[in-house]
Q: What sequence folds into this?
């Protein structure tokens, strides 16, 4: 019953921190280490939300978001990306690609949960 | 009934005023500066005092005077409506009610203690007067980008977030929705106008729209004047046009009619409908065109009258929900928890009797939610949740039923623990793998409790079985869902009224019976082939699944010759299905329920009786009981396999 979040990041430590936080908040987490991997996971369905980094090897986050939005099953799917304060222009670009919202790095666990609850509901 | 007793009127009026007072006090907790609420509380106290003196309730007047004086100071801004002042005023309100209803049980010492507390609360303030953020009313008009929903933004969640900031009036602007042929179902054409009263700053409101703020239209303005002007004229007009009748949960300006009179009226209307259907039969057989015309007129009028009468018995569930605010307030205090109660669908109407009988089971469920559901603030923080727990009560109509949901964001039900207890108590075969829904149904078995220690609030040995029995007796059912760490939702599904059901009239031998239509899934024929084959084991193959069936002829010991083609009515209760074999399916029948006499109260197979058009009596079958019987068949079959 719990909602499943796809976490996409090339950094193992970020993946782990995200997983710990989200499972602690009662969500299920599936992981992918780059955009292509994430896209393949999302094609399989059963995902309620995507949380992705933008800078990744093989396929970057922006491309993945664009590809995701082409999939019919991803209409309305909340997609949140991780960004840094310095990359302000990325926000606009990622939103144009189809992202729903963002989290600014570095973030605290409760900030992450607050954003997830904001787009997924309690 | 002593309608001439003038003190009765005072009592009724005072009860209403005390309710208003409590409501205002509880609201004040969240909006301590709201001048409107303070005035409401003051006025209520003032009237209770004034009329009390007039009707000879001198003790009430004397006591209330002190409380009124305290609130007069709040009104003048000399002291703030602090939490301690509100708590002691709530206690005072209870005392006043006792003074009015049972003057003997209200001790003076208790009253004096409350007044001391009142003084203490006022004095404490002169040392450190907290300055609460005054609630301000905002008007928001917003329209999301067309592709917002497709891009993952859920507008309903945004509205929920706004509601979490303070009381909201939400009006949807649907003017921009294109005609159906040009409609893109994924595009967000709806705009919203929200009137929000909150102590939070502007940035908190903008924060709600964080992700869409750059692309959306958002007009955010502070409404002129202060918080006491709840809705601007434009919104009020829109609200009025959306809701044809402005009856909100708080409107009390209406005619007072004793409930018994409504019951009598309903009973008489029931008889009228029966008499009318007899007339219809006679008119049907007659060739006289005038008789037929009159019969049709009377049929229409009788049915309209019935609907109107039913309507008069309906009251908004907000009355009931309102009572729980106090319950949650007191309970969470007692248990050291922080709980916010969120209500929605207060305008949903249902039968008065139903509302009265719902109070106890709902109190039980809410207690459970506060006591066992919501965790202590510390535990919640460790789990990464906000300190304050949330219990939501929601009501809505679904066809001829009412859905009431009680949900919390607490720890959820402990699956492993329930399974373990169920196995210990022999309710479950060890090692069985029940579904969530099946497992959670078990907690409603008599005597089932997982609470390891008895707290003072709940868990005194009366468990969910009491709730289930109460809901069963209202012909409703309960569904429990729960996610570990996220909370539980309990959904009650109830009929709109207890007085009338839609039924299917069937014949078994010479007797006629009514099966509630809501329980019926389908009717099939019992072929002679299957009939013969199933002599030993009573199962029917319905599209691949085996459904046990009960021959009502045998169950009711009918000795007449059976009809050659027996029919099976498939009924369900919960997730279990059972076939009832009858001689003939006669047709739809709207039934006014008459309860059985006390002598027959123990007959579990029937829930009541009704009088048919020709004056004969038909018994109403209790489906839950029959399904239970069928399930026992089914269990023996599974055991045998």
A:
């Amino acid at each position: 019953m719990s909602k499943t979040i796809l976490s996409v990041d090339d950094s193992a430590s970020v993946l782990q921190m995200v997983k710990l936080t989200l499972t602690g908040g009662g969500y299920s987490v599936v992981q992918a280490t780059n955009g292509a991997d994430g896209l393949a996971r999302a094609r399989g369905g059963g995902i309620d939300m995507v949380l992705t980094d933008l800078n990744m090897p093989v396929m970057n986050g922006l491309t993945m978001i664009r590809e995701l939005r082409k999939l019919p099953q991803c209409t309305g799917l909340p997609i949140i990306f991780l960004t840094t304060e310095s990359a302000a222009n990325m926000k606009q670009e990622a939103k144009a690609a189809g992202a729903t919202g963002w989290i600014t790095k570095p973030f605290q666990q409760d900030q992450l949960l607050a954003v997830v609850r904001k787009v997924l509901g309690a | 009934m002593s309608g001439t007793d003038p003190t009765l009127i005072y009592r009724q009026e005072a009860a209403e005023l005390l309710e208003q007072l409590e409501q205002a006090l509880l609201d004040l907790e969240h909006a301590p500066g709201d001048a409107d609420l303070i005035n409401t509380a003051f006025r209520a106290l003032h009237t209770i005092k004034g009329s009390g003196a007039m009707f000879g309730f001198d003790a009430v007047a004397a006591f209330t005077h002190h409380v009124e004086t305290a609130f007069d100071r709040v009104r003048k801004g000399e002291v703030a409506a602090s939490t301690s002042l509100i708590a002691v005023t709530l206690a005072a309100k209870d005392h006043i009610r006792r003074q009015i209803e049972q003057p003997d049980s209200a001790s003076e010492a208790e009253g004096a203690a409350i007044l001391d507390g009142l003084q203490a609360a006022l004095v404490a303030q002169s040392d450190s007067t907290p300055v609460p953020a005054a609630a301000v009313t905002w008007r928001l008009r917003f329209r999301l980008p067309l592709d917002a929903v497709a891009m993952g933004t859920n507008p309903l969640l945004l509205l929920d977030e706004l509601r979490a900031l303070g009381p909201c009036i939400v009006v949807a602007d649907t003017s921009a929705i294109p005609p159906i042929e040009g409609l893109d179902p994924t595009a967000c054409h709806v705009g919203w106008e929200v009137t929000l009263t909150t102590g939070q700053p502007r940035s908190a409101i903008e924060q709600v729209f964080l992700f869409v703020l750059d692309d959306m239209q958002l007009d955010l303005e502070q409404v002129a004047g202060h918080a006491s002007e709840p809705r601007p004229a434009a919104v009020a007009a829109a609200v009025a046009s959306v809701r044809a009748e402005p009856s909100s949960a708080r409107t009390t300006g209406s005619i007072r009619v004793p409930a018994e009179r409504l019951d009598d009226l309903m009973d008489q209307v029931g008889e009228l409908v029966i008499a009318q259907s007899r007339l219809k039969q006679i008119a049907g057989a007659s060739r006289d065109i005038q008789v037929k015309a009159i019969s049709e007129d009377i049929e229409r009028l009788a049915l309209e009258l019935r609907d109107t009468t039913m309507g008069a018995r309906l009251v908004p569930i907000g009355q009931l929900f309102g009572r729980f605010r106090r319950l949650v307030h007191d309970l969470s205090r007692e248990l050291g928890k922080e709980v916010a109660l969120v209500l929605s669908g207060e305008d949903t109407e249902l039968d008065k009797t139903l509302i009265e009988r719902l109070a106890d089971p709902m109190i039980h469920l809410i207690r459970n939610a506060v006591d066992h559901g919501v965790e202590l603030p510390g535990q919640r923080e460790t789990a990464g949740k906000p300190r304050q727990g949330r219990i939501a009560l929601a009501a809505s109509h679904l066809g001829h039923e009412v859905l009431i949901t009680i949900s919390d964001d607490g720890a959820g039900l402990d699956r492993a623990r329930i399974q373990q207890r169920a196995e210990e108590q022999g309710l479950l075969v060890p090692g069985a793998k029940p579904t969530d829904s099946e497992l959670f149904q078990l907690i409603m078995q008599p005597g089932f409790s997982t609470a390891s220690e008895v707290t003072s609030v709940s868990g005194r040995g009366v468990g969910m079985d009491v709730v289930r029995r109460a809901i069963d007796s209202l012909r409703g059912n309960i569904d429990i869902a729960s996610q570990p760490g996220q909370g539980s939702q309990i959904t009650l599904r109830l009929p709109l009224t207890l007085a009338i059901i839609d039924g299917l009239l069937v014949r078994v031998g010479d007797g006629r019976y009514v099966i509630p239509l809501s329980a019926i899934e389908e009717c099939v024929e019992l072929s002679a082939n299957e009939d013969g084959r199933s002599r030993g084991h009573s199962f029917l193959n319905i599209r691949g699944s085996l459904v046990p069936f009960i021959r009502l002829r045998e169950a009711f010991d009918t000795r007449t010759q059976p009809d050659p083609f027996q029919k099976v009515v498939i009924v369900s209760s919960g997730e279990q299905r059972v076939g009832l074999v009858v001689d003939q399916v006669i047709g739809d029948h709207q039934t006014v329920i008459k309860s059985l006499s006390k002598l027959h109260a123990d007959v579990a197979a029937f829930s009541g009786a009704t009088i048919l058009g020709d004056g004969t009596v038909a018994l109403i079958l209790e489906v839950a009981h029959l399904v239970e019987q069928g399930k026992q068949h089914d269990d023996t079959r599974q055991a045998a396999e």
About this structure: Confidence is low (pLDDT under 50) at residues 128-132, 225-232, 238-251, 452-462 of chain B.
